[in-house]
Amino acid sequence: MILIIDDDSAVRSSLSFMLKRAGYEAQTVPGPREAMDVVRVEAPALILMDMNFTLSTTGEEGLTLLKQVKIFRPDVPVILMTAWGSIQLAVQGMQAGAFDFITKPWNNAALLQRIETALELTAVPKDAPEEQSETLNRSHIIGKSQGLMEVLNTVARIARTNASVLITGESGTGKELIAEAIHINSQRVKQPFVKVNLGGISQSLFESEMFGHKKGAFTDATTDRVGRFELANKGTIFLDEIGDLDPSCQVKLLRVLQDQTFEVLGDSRPRKTDIRVVSATNADLRKMVSERTFREDLFYRINLITVKLPALRERREDIPLLARHFADRQAEINGLPRTEFSADALNFLSRLPYPGNIRELKNLVERTILVSGKPTLDASDFDAQYLRHDEPVKASESSSLAGMTLDEIEHQTILQALDRHKGNLSQVAMTLGISRAALYRRLEKFNITVNEK
Q1: Is 222 helix (H, G, I), strand (E, B) or coil?
Q2: Is residue 279 a contact partner of residue 226, using CB atoms and an 8 Å limit?
Q3: What is the dihedral of CA 209, 211, 217, 221, to 10 degrees?
Q4: What is the pLDDT of residues 231-249, one digit of tens each?
Q5: What one-character-per-residue DSSP string does 269-289 give?
Q6: What residues contact 95, with CB distance under 8 A and at least 6 apart?
Q7: Residue 126 — pLDDT band, cuts 50, 70, 90?
């Protein structure tokens, strides 16, 4: 049974009718007192709760009711209903334990999808066997460490739902591979998987890139363009580096994720989209929320489920397996004979710090194979190709930072890294701990021209 709590009889009737047509049993009550009478007696499968009752618009009644419900029924998912202008109330509700929120007027298809997701996720027993990952299509995910297996167990549990997923972890840990695994193990596997690197999209191009444009919508719009959300319809959209998104673009993204509708530039007719959203970042979004550089309401919208990837140094037992995989791929791609590793070589690889994580290991293995040309590699071969991250800093680089702004420090650090690595952007990005796309944005920001190597 789904319990609907709203003081508007028209809303109760509309929701009840929608749910019954979708095959759910619904019960409606007008306010907090009647809701608690129901909750004390039985546990609904889910609760749809308005945030405001009587003439109040503060949301205090809704927050109080939510806390009371959670005391009696802590495991029942609650989806909050509020107006777009009162979305901050929903954020407070999420902090108080709500499962999700929708804004009025709602999109029936989007609401039903969220109800289905909430019911699927909360129906999974907490003691589900860890062997779930054995039936998972892992694609190119290599490893068997405990940290990785915990991630894959989570992916196996949530892949078939429509829950939004936020993948966190350091640069180079394989967040895109996890996003692909979520898609290929979902019910949307035969539909598009659209990747968007938000760190590489400027603010001025965001709407055109994401929503598309009609011919003549602006000066350079010589043809129609299909946006990423339309391309991803019925499938999954992967929003990489979401922490780099400009605040003004965050609002536009939130509206699409909230209502699953968008407008093409030059066309005021709203278009619907049915998408599963998977996001990724190496930034600390909670810290960004506290610093008000990332919207809290968007943060709650994208991270119904959070998957944190371990750094490579936290799963060292996987390094020999990964090295073998990268060597075999290199041989296959370039038509080379299989390369072997000595025991010393694998020990050497397993001891490195890897600030660049899996991406750094992949580059090291491939570079060493191509440069050495030997059938069996030992520790000295890898040592010769290893890019040291602990080289002494030049005296000129260690000058006092007193009086410099953060932008000036960042600008100077990038110039020093470019000089140290002679313009090799892959090495510069690895040294700075950011992706190439994020580095490109900073080069554009500081008007730094590089002859890429």
Answers
A1: coil
A2: no
A3: 30
A4: 999 999 999 999 989 888 9
A5: S-EE---EEEEEESS-HHHHH
A6: none
A7: very low
Give the contacts of 14 (CB within 8 A, at least 6 positions apart). Answer: none
- For residue 375, give the nearest of 338, 418, 334, 327 by alpha carbon: 338
Spatial distance between the Cα atoms of 141 and 95, rounded to a whole number of angstroms:
34
* Secondary structure letter of residue 309 according to DSSP: P
The whole-model pTM stands at 0.73
Q: What angle do CA 398, 399, 401 make, to 5 degrees?
A: 105
The residue written with tokens 């972890």 in the block is: 169
Q: What's the gap between Cα 364 and its chain centre?
A: 27
CA 243 vs CA 132, 145, 200: distances in Å:
31, 28, 12
Instruction: Give burial (CB, 10 Å; 0-12/13-18/19+) of 326.
Output: buried
Distance of CA 323 to the CA centre of its chain: 27
**In this predicted model, which residue has the larger pLDDT, 315 or 392?**
315
- Burial (CB count <10 Å: 0-12, 13-18, 19+), residue 314: middle
Residue reference for tokens 């600030």: 355
Q: What is the pLDDT of residue 395?
A: 41
